[in-house]
Amino acid sequence: MKFICEKSMLQEAISNVQKAITGKSTMPVLQGILLDARNGEVTLIGSDIDLSIEAKITADVMEDGSVVLDSKLFGEIIRKLPNSAVEISSDENNSIKIVCQKSYATIIHMDSEDYPSLPDIIENMVFSISQKLLKNMMKGTIFAVAQDETRPILTGVLFEIKNKKLNLVALDGYRVAFRSEPVDNDSSINAVIPGKTLSEVSKILEETDEVVNITFTPNHILFNLGKTKVISRLLEGEFIKYSSIIPEEYNLKITAKRSELLNCIERASLMAKEGNTNLVKFNIEEDNMIITSNSQLGKAREEINIILQGEPLQIAFNSKYLIELLKIMDEEEIVMEFSSGVNPCVVRNKEKDNCTYMVLPVRIRATNN
Amino acid sequence: MKFICEKSMLQEAISNVQKAITGKSTMPVLQGILLDARNGEVTLIGSDIDLSIEAKITADVMEDGSVVLDSKLFGEIIRKLPNSAVEISSDENNSIKIVCQKSYATIIHMDSEDYPSLPDIIENMVFSISQKLLKNMMKGTIFAVAQDETRPILTGVLFEIKNKKLNLVALDGYRVAFRSEPVDNDSSINAVIPGKTLSEVSKILEETDEVVNITFTPNHILFNLGKTKVISRLLEGEFIKYSSIIPEEYNLKITAKRSELLNCIERASLMAKEGNTNLVKFNIEEDNMIITSNSQLGKAREEINIILQGEPLQIAFNSKYLIELLKIMDEEEIVMEFSSGVNPCVVRNKEKDNCTYMVLPVRIRATNN
């Protein structure tokens, strides 16, 4: 193997494929990056079996070949090189030589034949969506996946195409995060992607209007970003029928400024850290909402202007869930819909109808304060 | 106690005094910040006995008084308040009330009488130096203090005033860091400040030409920055006679570009991580220096242009020590002076004569490669 390529391109490709290398695999070869040089390009692959990332760069290939190089060492060597052309070639004794200007390094390589082959996916049933938009949808749902493995399917995010809409859904028994965007696609798709791999994918997606092409197979999803391809295993099993959980009707509805509400809840939650309950109480009144918390640390009372449609209500929440979703929403005004003090609360943007969040309240004993 | 002050000023004062609160003290009251309101100002104090920081802010004091508040909780509450006036007042049941716009918080306070008193220092023998300059001198020496406690005096930085110069010196048995600046002061002072407290002081010093006034007592040093005062305990004992360690003569001397040399050593050191030796070899030739390393991971060879005065030499170093000092120096060109392959190497700026670094080489068996 022998090729010459640009340091900056190689560094970017390495940094992308490294996102799949978790170091948790028991196969030593998966600590490495597979390099395959032929036909004027070099393909780099990083994988932990569940997630595989492939990046291609153009190169001047003088001799075809493939090797596996320790991901960390190879990445650090390339990163510290000057911004210039890098020559990588096979050397004696199972090693490869890296030359850049006056820098020479020789490192041992592993055998590329030991590297597992990626699932072979034919990209014929493709749908496309803007990278920026998908990245935003992922960010808006991943935080709500279940952290414990009691129900493995809930550690993933549902990708659903239905009625020309792409829906992403995550839920963990205490809350639901639902994001939806129209797509020009008639297929009906239902796949659950592990939350961990999805958060790596979201790091690779760029804040650009350029599209990512997505292909589903029974066991995998492929994100094709042009020079980079990401393949994730799907979770097996049926996702929960989320639509039956989210209440469609409500008795009262408030409109509030998102960042103001977030600040009030964050301040009140400082007193609610005790015993990890994070309990904050909402006292919804005409034009006003009082948020209180109370613990051995002290007491907090916050007041925020709201617009109320319906009757006053008292309700309590684990502030953590509200803080997480209010941080992720991006509209200035939000709407919260309530049925009673023990029924779920639904949070939406005031203007755009592209997200629905649901949070379960915490039951509290009725008091007079 | 009752006063009103600006949130931003209070937050800055809290963040400064918190730098002294390590949470390692066994006295619960030292987890707190002492607030003392009187005469139109509020004094805040944080301390772990070794290091005490006092910050004063102007306030509208309606009722004198003093309390101790949990540093973390109080700090977080203030930080999350809107940028506005904050009213802090004593409340019933050993608690204080914090009011800002529509936010109310009540937190328990500790008794200010339990708070240890700070050493009483009369600021009559003062010398002054620009904050920026002192901060830079600290940064240029602290990294070289001894990390282990075998010789406690070496965990500190020597502050020495001699011949109208302020010298800061740190050494750990493998290297010496020496910074010197002229000061308009005739006194003769010799004090050793714990490295840990000094690194907190350096965070408080600002990148400004405004001066800091420094007072020494037999057991303490006081840094007076106007609104903030920092008092550190001194280490007991004699510092090592550093001047006899730093060689004044040399047989050969090279001049090199600092950042280029740093990059070469960093790249070579990637192969030298094994067994924590960080061993890199320098082969100093006419016009050229070859830096090599060699381990089971692989080999590296770097070449850098130099100007050599004297005879060629082979010498080896623990790259960690050279990397740390080259990162901290700020001139473009540096000079290294050598006597032999087993004698210390001295590193200086090429132009400015304000720093001297010394590093011991690692003895290696002579080889022919």
TrEMBL record, chains A, B:
<comment type="subunit">
    <text>Forms a ring-shaped head-to-tail homodimer around DNA.</text>
</comment>
<dbReference type="GO" id="GO:0008408">
    <property type="term" value="F:3'-5' exonuclease activity"/>
</dbReference>
<keyword id="KW-0963">Cytoplasm</keyword>
<feature type="domain" description="DNA polymerase III beta sliding clamp N-terminal">
    <location>
        <begin position="1"/>
        <end position="119"/>
    </location>
</feature>
<dbReference type="GO" id="GO:0006271">
    <property type="term" value="P:DNA strand elongation involved in DNA replication"/>
</dbReference>
<keyword id="KW-0235">DNA replication</keyword>
<dbReference type="InterPro" id="IPR046938">
    <property type="entry name" value="DNA_clamp_sf"/>
</dbReference>
<keyword id="KW-0239">DNA-directed DNA polymerase</keyword>
<comment type="similarity">
    <text>Belongs to the beta sliding clamp family.</text>
</comment>
<dbReference type="GO" id="GO:0009360">
    <property type="term" value="C:DNA polymerase III complex"/>
</dbReference>
<comment type="function">
    <text>Confers DNA tethering and processivity to DNA polymerases and other proteins. Acts as a clamp, forming a ring around DNA (a reaction catalyzed by the clamp-loading complex) which diffuses in an ATP-independent manner freely and bidirectionally along dsDNA. Initially characterized for its ability to contact the catalytic subunit of DNA polymerase III (Pol III), a complex, multichain enzyme responsible for most of the replicative synthesis in bacteria; Pol III exhibits 3'-5' exonuclease proofreading activity.</text>
</comment>
<dbReference type="InterPro" id="IPR022634">
    <property type="entry name" value="DNA_polIII_beta_N"/>
</dbReference>
<dbReference type="InterPro" id="IPR022635">
    <property type="entry name" value="DNA_polIII_beta_C"/>
</dbReference>
<dbReference type="InterPro" id="IPR022637">
    <property type="entry name" value="DNA_polIII_beta_cen"/>
</dbReference>
<feature type="domain" description="DNA polymerase III beta sliding clamp C-terminal">
    <location>
        <begin position="244"/>
        <end position="363"/>
    </location>
</feature>
<protein>
    <recommendedName>
        <fullName>Beta sliding clamp</fullName>
    </recommendedName>
</protein>
<dbReference type="GO" id="GO:0003887">
    <property type="term" value="F:DNA-directed DNA polymerase activity"/>
</dbReference>
<dbReference type="InterPro" id="IPR001001">
    <property type="entry name" value="DNA_polIII_beta"/>
</dbReference>
<keyword id="KW-0808">Transferase</keyword>
<dbReference type="GO" id="GO:0003677">
    <property type="term" value="F:DNA binding"/>
</dbReference>
<feature type="domain" description="DNA polymerase III beta sliding clamp central">
    <location>
        <begin position="129"/>
        <end position="239"/>
    </location>
</feature>
<dbReference type="Pfam" id="PF02767">
    <property type="entry name" value="DNA_pol3_beta_2"/>
</dbReference>
<keyword id="KW-0238">DNA-binding</keyword>
<keyword id="KW-0548">Nucleotidyltransferase</keyword>
<dbReference type="Pfam" id="PF02768">
    <property type="entry name" value="DNA_pol3_beta_3"/>
</dbReference>
<dbReference type="Pfam" id="PF00712">
    <property type="entry name" value="DNA_pol3_beta"/>
</dbReference>
<dbReference type="GO" id="GO:0005737">
    <property type="term" value="C:cytoplasm"/>
</dbReference>
